[in-house]
Each structure stands twice: as structure tokens, then as C-alpha cells.
Design goal:
Helices cover about 45% and strands about 20% of the residues. The protein contains 8 helices and 8 strands; from the N terminus they run αααααββββαββαββα.
Length: about 280
């Protein structure tokens, strides 16, 4: 049976040593050229700062295999193969590979897309579909992140491409909101202006846009205020402490009280039946 199929695509009786030698030379030449192109593409792309090593390696591999495929087809044509059945076989193999490895191909293609578009690079702090972390690796299958609590998170490339990506490193400016309260005896406008002015003097707080404070709601113990300010993402933790200290110092310095929630404790006498008993 295999011999019959081979006879249909190749007439071995007409082959000559010249054709065999030429086909061998084509295969060897294609192999050497593919190897040279693969290495050259890697070396060329590795010199570009905007292209990662993974992208350079992927482009080199694809270029090399493309040249090898052209060489194989050319050698088969020299040997007198009927290209119709060969092309059908290649198409069938491509369909089988595409169906069986659809997710792998999707992730691989998405990985190449990420490397070309470069929405982020290794070391960036990003958010993907609600997951926040620092990029540790971008490979052919997934993006590897490290979260704040040092957990390793692996996100498939196909999911990354289909998600909204926030790159916190690309744009360092962040807005933070903090709540504080003042008593009803205080002037809320004066309290808001004083707090915003004090926060604006901090070195870690941006002046543009300037901090702004206002009454958020009417609380049980006083006005519940809200202040908004901008800062660099890397200062998101220390700036909150400095802002809180500045607001308290500024308001207390002009005699504005900041209400403290009261905790009422009621002592309920124990009933006679609740008295514990001790048995000998």
C-alpha cells in the first residue's frame, strides 16, 4: 500500500544520479542558509532595545523553518514528485496541528503579538484582568508575574491579549483618596482649604493636578471629608502616612477638632443563675 502511494507521486524509474545529487545539494544548502538566517536574525534583533530575546529567538526560528520548508519543496520538485498530493499532505498536517494544538498556537501567536506591540516589558508593574504584579518573564506560552505578597502568577498569553492591561510603570502618576472628619463646630470650607494646602506642600505630592478636599457626606459625629491628591506610583505607601500626618497637624494647629468615634461599654450585672459554680 505505501509503495502504491509512492508510485503515484514519484516515478522512481526516471530518477537520475544528477537529480538525486541536486536534491541533496538543495537540502544541504537550505539547511545551511536557514541556520545562517536564524542566527543573523537573532543577532540583529538582540541589538534592538525594544525587542526582547524571546521575540528575537521566535523570529529567528520561524525564518529558519520557512527557508527549510522552501528547500524541502524544491528538492521534492527536482526529484519529480507530483506536488498536488504533497501540498494536500502538508495542508492536512497543518490542519491536524492547528486543531490539536489550538490553545498552544493561540498562546504562541499571542506571545509574538505581545513582543511586537510591547505593552509592557520585564520589570513593569501591570494589572491584567484584576491581577496586579511585576512582570518577571514573557515566554511563548505565558506571562509570569510576581504579586505584592511574592506569589508567582502565570497568565496565558491569549488571556493577556484579550484583556485590558494597565501599565503602572509606563505612567507613574497615581491618584489617591483619603477620608478624614471634622466636628460640626468647624468651618468645613476652612478645613478643606487647610488640609489641601498642607498636603500640597509635601514633596511626594504632585502639584499638577493640585490636591483638593471637600465634604463627602454628613456623618454622625461631624463632617466626613475627602481629599484627593496625585503622586508617583512608587511612593504610594509612604505618601499616605505623610498626608495623614500633615492633615492632622494642620487642622489641630488652627483649633479644628477631629471627632473620634466613641465606644460605649455597658456593664450588665450577672444574674444569680449565671454565677459559675464549683464542684468538689
Amino acid at each position: 500500500m505505501p509503495e502504491d502511494i509512492l508510485d503515484e507521486v514519484l516515478d522512481a524509474s526516471t530518477l537520475t544520479w544528477t537529480e538525486l545529487l541536486l536534491a541533496l545539494v538543495i537540502l544541504i544548502g537550505a539547511f545551511l542558509i536557514a541556520r545562517m538566517v536564524r542566527r543573523s536574525m537573532r543577532a540583529f534583533l538582540d541589538q534592538r532595545p525594544d525587542v526582547s530575546h524571546h521575540t528575537a529567538d521566535t523570529v529567528g526560528q520561524v525564518s529558519g523553518w520557512s527557508i527549510m520548508l522552501v528547500g524541502i519543496v524544491s528538492a521534492l520538485m527536482v526529484l519529480g514528485f507530483e506536488m498536488g498530493p504533497v501540498v494536500m499532505l502538508l495542508l492536512l498536517m497543518a490542519v491536524i496541528v492547528a486543531v490539536s494544538g489550538r490553545r498552544i498556537l493561540e498562546n504562541w501567536a499571542s506571545g509574538v503579538s505581545l513582543q511586537v506591540m510591547t505593552p509592557f516589558v520585564v520589570g513593569d508593574r501591570i494589572e491584567i484582568d484584576g491581577v496586579v504584579g511585576w512582570v518577571q518573564q514573557i515566554n511563548a506560552r505565558e506571562v509570569v508575574l510576581t504579586s505584592r505578597d511574592r506569589r508567582t502568577i502565570r497568565v496565558p498569553n491569549a488571556m493577556v491579549v484579550d484583556s485590558i492591561i494597565y501599565n503602572f510603570t509606563d505612567d507613574q502618576q497615581r491618584r489617591t483618596e483619603m477620608e478624614f472628619g471634622v466636628s460640626y463646630d468647624a468651618d468645613p470650607v476652612l478645613a478643606a482649604d487647610t488640609a489641601a494646602s498642607a498636603v500640597a506642600q509635601l514633596e511626594l505630592v504632585h502639584q499638577d493636578p493640585a490636591p483638593i478636599a471637600f465634604v463627602e457626606r454628613i456623618g454622625d459625629d461631624g463632617y466626613e471629608m475627602l481629599i484627593r491628591f496625585y503622586h508617583d506610583d512608587e511612593h504610594r505607601k509612604p505618601v499616605r502616612t505623610e498626608v495623614a500626618r500633615a492633615i492632622v497637624d494642620a487642622l489641630t494647629s488652627i483649633g479644628i477638632d477631629m471627632p473620634t468615634p466613641e465606644l460605649a461599654i455597658t456593664e450588665i450585672p450577672a444574674r444569680p443563675n449565671d454565677t459559675p459554680t464549683t464542684r468538689a
